[in-house]
Amino acid sequence: MARTAKKPSGRRRGTPQAGPASQDAAGRRTIQRGKTAAELAALLDSKLFKALCEPARVELIKFLIVNGRSTVGTIAERFPQDASVISRHLAILHDAGVVSRQKEGRHVYFQLDGASVIGRIEAILDRFRAAAPLCCPASDE
């Protein structure tokens, strides 16, 4: 009769194997970390960050901080871009909740929406604070 070789078990002799309870806990932690990573990735890919990563939009925000409520025409007078380009940038900032707009007759006024920006950033910080123990343990420095 031919002898068949034993398949290696995948673990070294003498090393303890984790029991089903610890494997379940590790699996749950892995799943939780995956969910947390996906949530944080979505936060970092949010409309807010996309809106703020364009230098021209940051300049528009600075303009609105200094000058307050303004129309596209007033803003466009101070920028090298065409009014249509300024309008598109303001629309992106509006969609991200960074500026508010108010139509009065033929004019549309834009202003920084401080409460919205603060609320969005606080929500992001809250989520990061909740996720930090799972994904980013404190270093011993």
Structure in a nutshell:
The chain is built from six helices and three strands. The protein is mostly helical.
Give the topology string: H per helix, E per strand.
Answer: HHHEHHEEH
Distance between the termini: 64 Å
Helix count equals 6
What structural class is derived from the secondary structure elements?
Answer: mainly alpha
Q: How would you describe the shape?
A: elongated
What's the name of the CATH homologous superfamily? Answer: Winged helix-like DNA-binding domain superfamily/Winged helix DNA-binding domain
CATH C-level category:
Mainly Alpha
Instruction: Please identify, by name, the CATH architecture.
Output: Orthogonal Bundle
Gyration radius, rounded:
27 Å
Main β-sheet: number of strands, strand sense, barrel status?
3 strands, antiparallel
Helix content: 55-70%
Low-confidence stretches: none
Looking at the structure, the CATH topology is Arc Repressor Mutant, subunit A
Q: Biggest sheet, strands in spatial order?
A: 1-3-2
